[in-house]
Amino acid sequence: MQSARDSQDWLTKIRREIHRRPELGFREERTARLIEARLGELGIPSVRMAGTGVVGLIKGGRSGGGVCAALRADMDALPITDAKQGELRSETDGVMHACGHDAHTTCLLGAARLLTGLADGFSGSVKLIFQPAEETDSGGALPMIGEGVLDSPRVDAAFGLHADPGIPAGKIGVASGFTQAASDMFDVTIYGGGGHGAYPHTATDVLYAACQCVSALQSVVARNVAPLDAAVVTVGKLRSGTARNIIPARAEFSGIIRTLDPAVRALVRERVERTIRGVCGALGAEVTYTSRAGFPMLKNNEAMTSLVREAAANMLGAESVQDAAPSMGVEDFAYFAERCPACFFNLGVRNEAKGITHPLHSDLFNIDETALPIGAALLSAAAVSFMSHHEK
Q1: What does the alpha-carbon distance between residue 53 and residue 47 come to, in Å, rounded to a whole number?
Q2: With helix as H, strand as E and coil as C, how does 310-345 read?
Q3: Tens digits of per-residue pLDDT, 82-140?
Q4: Which overall architecture, per CATH, does domain 182-293 show?
Q5: pTM score of the predicted model
């Protein structure tokens, strides 16, 4: 841990450079070049995947076979205008690292730096996966997997982290089992005969129908899902109309379903569509409904979770390792966890004394940068521990 703390200034400089110049999904060209440059300085070869994704490989110096552990960090920012002031404010209008991906990338570079100094002591290899586009609907994990990021050498386990403003810096949260929700997106267009606002009886009010749909969707979870199960239905976009005195002929809205159980997922998807079609039918409006599956549920492997928990307890003390509650957030690291044993843990970044308390996706989001060496050290420790316990 001390060697990681000795990298504090190096890590802070990298994180601030990425933070000030955020880039959206699949556009992370500047970030990719920075990563390639830092890996090159460490003597780590790298290749591009999925456009802006970067993959490095550290080979152990000991003879013998050895397993391959993957460490993953996402790189992209969000379309949010940064409300912070001072040197940490984004220099790109309308784009901001409001979800901590700048910290994730920095932690992985820090882990790479630590692992180069430890390579003579292990016989396996560590694959460093810098992934684009986690914040997009499709994600960047599947494109990288499709291009072979888990092959040559074959990845035997994967580890990742996420900044958590609910946990104080110096602590982590981790749990086995389902820890992140699955997502399903839906888009709705409602059609009807528009008309004059003074004569509503001559029109089919699609805006009213859309509002009734949004209201009725709240009953899907409240009256269909068992109280001890988890599900969220959110409508985040609604668009209709051109003037206050015109009943529009078209209304559109879009939403997302989040669930933590496969059976609940199937139930909610069916009830959302049935509710929308039923409401529109009752109001005499026509409707088109389209949906598509998003990211799967993220399930942490019990053995990998125990390994991370043990490494964190040795490094930070058992009192600094919290049981993480399941989150309704979604995360495309789940695609890696579907294909190999994996653990995704939460890195505490909160510091009330410094005013660092804002939630993820807030335009004031920030992190306590003392968490960076902890994240780097835990990622590297997880990889080394896995390799030492699973030598071939």
Answers
A1: 8
A2: HHHHHHHCHHHEEECCCECCCCCCHHHHHHCCEEEE
A3: 999 998 999 999 999 999 999 999 999 999 999 999 999 999 999 999 999 999 989 99
A4: 2-Layer Sandwich (3.30)
A5: 0.94
